[in-house]
Amino acid sequence: MIAIGMEGSANKLGIGIMLHPKDGSPPQVLANIRHTYVSPPGEGFLPKDTARHHRQWVVKLVKQALQEAKVSVDDVDCICFTKGPGMGAPLQSVVVAARMLSLLWGKELVGVNHCVGHIEMGRLITGATNPVVLYVSGGNTQVIAYSSQRYRIFGETLDMAVGNCLDRFARTLHISNDPAPGYNIEQLAKQGKQLVDLPYVVKGMDCSFSGILAAIDGLAKQWGLGGEEKAQEDEQKTIESTIATDESLESTPTRADLCFSLQETVFSMLVEITERAMAHVGSKQVLIVGGVGSNERLQEMMGIMARDRGGSVYATDERFCIDNGIMIAQAGILAYGTGFRTPLKESTCTQRFRTDEVFVKWRD
Amino acid sequence: MAPSLETISLPHLPLPVHVVLYRNVQNAASLKGRLLTGQSEFEYAFIDASMVLSRAHATAAVFRAVNDYMHDRLKSHNVHSEIVFSLNPTNNITESFRRFGISDSTKDLLVIKVSVSPEITYESVAAHLDSSVEGTPVPFDDQTLSEISDVNKIKKAYKLAALPSPTAKENDEAKQRLENSLLSAIALRGS
Amino acid sequence: MEEYKPPALPSPFNNTTPPPTLLIQGAEAHLYKTTSLNPSIPAALKIRPSKPYRHPILDRRLTRQRITSEARCLAKLVREGVSVPALLALDWEGHGGEEGGWGGAWLMMEWIDGPVIRVVLEQWEAWMKQNAGSLDQSQVENEEARVRGLLRKMGAAIGVLHKAGVVHGDLTTSNLMLRPFANASGTVDGTRSPSMEGDVVLIDFGLASQSNQDEDRAVDLYVLERAIGSTHPRSEPMFEEMIMGYRDSYKGAPSALKRLEDVRLRGRKRSMLG
């Protein structure tokens, strides 16, 4: 079976082609390409601009993916698309393309839950069999565990997603959105030394980030660290000045210190709620998925926690944990294999679509 | 020799603790004076026993002080002054001595000495106290303490005036509740 | 995969003989049984081990905050005469785990004898199932009255807790214990329906906070309602009985119960139990 996966729930447009060989040998990624809409520093991506980006690129990407995969349209069994959750306009632009291809080629549609896509791709790549899943991205923050045909949400953010918190702070600091604001925060945080006090909000297995963002935005303002000029200073910094910060501990925090402190605080919260879920369900595996999951410091912290519990952490690299098309193909082909289809008139998309709404027929 | 000197091994703590309770002490003023000169042989916790509710009350303060001593975070000069300080629910050291320490008029005296060095033995402590304290050693138990403690003063020092006062009966709930309240105040000081 | 080993005990418990026995190892804390400051009286020792994954400054700050918050709740409840384990000793800094490093904060509590209510209810449910055929109407009514009595007692205990200005944060039938009266005799052997005599004692204040808000109280009750519903199917219809015990226990109860209606309707979020 061969499936095309089409993803565009946020600012990444991804097309992937997945092969599940008939003989039962391991699935193969035939193509996995992505094009990202990057907004200027200090700005987020707006739905209408993002949707326009996806419309402009979708045909080109599908063609390129088919070429890379060396398959013809005839070989394709189904077209999988992200049904939600995500931003309305970008989702719509991709679902329209999916419908068009379905009609043009006479292929069946499979609507996929974006979060389930992340989980299934993570399981496939890492080989984690039944992990507690931490799903962290710009739009979602959830701790998930599988039980009786559902991916159940044990904990989640009570307000904004952790990735959104990081992205918005990147805007405050005018950090570049290329390749991703979170990636650039991570690099800057590596030079941070001093931990500033930030709120830490965990309630059971839930957490909250809005108070932290407000606090750190306030600190950036208080110390005059926000804005374009400071961002340029960052770029001009030499190695010399990085060493100088070593000695200036307990002094005025730097931009790097703020990024460092933000990461240390929010990642500690994420590891804490994940550990609580692991203790609750008695699992020793943890799988991190979603864009924020590519952060190496988060992976490191999660690894230490898992090791201390006698378990291990599974994470994927940016090809698979940042939004992509192949994960939609993977989750879609699993559902397709159990007979699941999305009829044309039901091939809508939705901004809200909870992970636990999906009936996971393909697992025991 | 003081027949009632007792050596207690508090669970969890490696240092033995020597304790004796005196009644009808005649030379409190002189004992206090010698304590204040800071001579090392007079390094004791001299506690006004009327401010001690029970054995558990006193041992909680000893535990707190010795644990802080072992972890190098004494707030006062030495582990013995720290025991007196540990009875206090607040961080005011002067106040703790005024409330719980020996005064010129102290009649009932609880003496505690921790074996912080090998020279401090049962024999050395017993001999020194025998020659220094003019008073009658009595058993250090709840029965005796119940005749000595000034419950109202204790309650006032811990701001627990609203709690019911203990009665004479056995398994007294009011006494248990008061004692538990004292223990938690000692544990939480400075938190 | 290697077997999980709990971290080394913080000083002074690394020298305790016999060593404390590990009872429960949660995500946040480990519970041990050991002796109190009186060698003949047992105590519960709760340790919050250091979390090496987080920044040491943040780790100390959080550990200290949480252990002292729990200790303050216990101290307050003891003063107010609520049935909780007494706080015996505390160290929010903690010392001496591996290589003399930081081992974690700890608090020592009074040891509570007796079963947790989850076990009492499970034994009762099993006993009822086993003897369903041989009980006559009045015996069944008698048994159900006993459970209702227990549930009312639980409700009253929670009411007293709320009245004292504390919400528990994690009420389940595993965090309520039944301490037999001092003069009680005999043990539960499974041949008789379990005893329901005794005091209801609330334990584990790791997620507790001080609050007098109806909302917090209602959420406390709602969490327990769902916990009872998922672990004790037979006694679920009797939750109302618990509410009755609660309603009569303090003046603010009716207004907290009114709020409970809202919380139920709202459903904090989609049920995630199970």
From TrEMBL, chain A:
Residues binding a divalent metal cation: H114, H118, Y135, D323
Cofactor-binding details, from the entry: Binds 1 divalent metal cation per subunit.
EC category name: transferase
Residues that hold substrate according to the record: Y135, V136, S137, G138, G139, D167, G182, E186, N295
GO MF annotations, alphabetized: metal ion binding; tRNA N(6)-L-threonylcarbamoyladenine synthase activity
Location, primary (coarse class): cytoplasm
Keywords in alphabetical order: Activator, Acyltransferase, Cytoplasm, Metal-binding, Nucleus, Transferase, tRNA processing
A Gene Ontology biological process term: tRNA threonylcarbamoyladenosine modification
PANTHER family per UniProt: TRNA N6-ADENOSINE THREONYLCARBAMOYLTRANSFERASE (PTHR11735)
Cofactor field: a divalent metal cation
Catalysed reaction, written as an equation: L-threonylcarbamoyladenylate + adenosine(37) in tRNA = N(6)-L-threonylcarbamoyladenosine(37) in tRNA + AMP + H(+)
Localization per record: Cytoplasm; Nucleus
Similarity section: Belongs to the KAE1 / TsaD family.
Name assigned to this protein: N(6)-L-threonylcarbamoyladenine synthase
Nucleotide-binding found in the keyword field: no
Gcp-like domain: residues covered: 29-329
Enzyme Commission identifier(s): 2.3.1.234
A cellular component term, taken from the record's GO annotations: cytoplasm
InterPro entries, A to Z: ATPase_NBD (IPR043129), Gcp-like_dom (IPR000905), KAE1/TsaD (IPR017861), Kae1_archaea_euk (IPR034680)
From TrEMBL, chain B:
Location(s) in or outside the cell: Nucleus
Acyltransferase listed as a keyword: no
GO CC terms of this entry: cytosol; EKC/KEOPS complex; nucleus
Entry-linked InterPro entries: CGI121/TPRKB, CGI121/TPRKB_sf
Source domain of life: Eukaryota
Tagged with keyword Cytoplasm: no
Keywords: Nucleus, tRNA processing
Function: Component of the EKC/KEOPS complex that is required for the formation of a threonylcarbamoyl group on adenosine at position 37 (t(6)A37) in tRNAs that read codons beginning with adenine. The complex is probably involved in the transfer of the threonylcarbamoyl moiety of threonylcarbamoyl-AMP (TC-AMP) to the N6 group of A37. CGI121 acts as an allosteric effector that regulates the t(6)A activity of the complex. The EKC/KEOPS complex also promotes both telomere uncapping and telomere elongation. The complex is required for efficient recruitment of transcriptional coactivators.
Family membership noted in the UniProt record: Belongs to the CGI121/TPRKB family.
PANTHER family linked: CGI-121 FAMILY MEMBER (PTHR15840), EKC_KEOPS COMPLEX SUBUNIT TPRKB (PTHR15840:SF10)
Identification of the protein by name: EKC/KEOPS complex subunit CGI121
UniProtKB/TrEMBL annotation, chain C:
Keyword Cell membrane annotated: no
Chief site of localization: nucleus
InterPro entries with a match to the protein in the record: Bud32 (IPR022495), Kinase-like_dom_sf (IPR011009), Prot_kinase_dom (IPR000719), Tyr_kinase_AS (IPR008266)
Gene Ontology MF terms in the entry: ATP binding; hydrolase activity; protein serine/threonine kinase activity
EC numbers, comma separated: 2.7.11.1
One GO-annotated biological process of the protein: tRNA threonylcarbamoyladenosine metabolic process
Keyword tags: Activator, ATP-binding, Chromosome, Cytoplasm, Hydrolase, Kinase, Nucleotide-binding, Nucleus, Phosphoprotein, Serine/threonine-protein kinase, Telomere, Transcription, Transcription regulation, Transferase, tRNA processing
Pfam families in the record: Kdo (PF06293)
Ranges for domain Protein kinase: 17-274
Record localization: Chromosome, Telomere; Cytoplasm; Nucleus
Record function comment: Component of the EKC/KEOPS complex that is required for the formation of a threonylcarbamoyl group on adenosine at position 37 (t(6)A37) in tRNAs that read codons beginning with adenine. The complex is probably involved in the transfer of the threonylcarbamoyl moiety of threonylcarbamoyl-AMP (TC-AMP) to the N6 group of A37. BUD32 has ATPase activity in the context of the EKC/KEOPS complex and likely plays a supporting role to the catalytic subunit KAE1. The EKC/KEOPS complex also promotes both telomere uncapping and telomere elongation.
Family: Belongs to the protein kinase superfamily. BUD32 family.
PANTHER family documented for this protein: EKC_KEOPS COMPLEX SUBUNIT TP53RK (PTHR12209:SF0), NON-SPECIFIC SERINE/THREONINE PROTEIN KINASE (PTHR12209)
Description of how the protein assembles with itself and partners: Component of the EKC/KEOPS complex composed of at least BUD32, CGI121, GON7, KAE1 and PCC1; the whole complex dimerizes.
Record's protein name: EKC/KEOPS complex subunit BUD32
Organism name: Penicillium fimorum
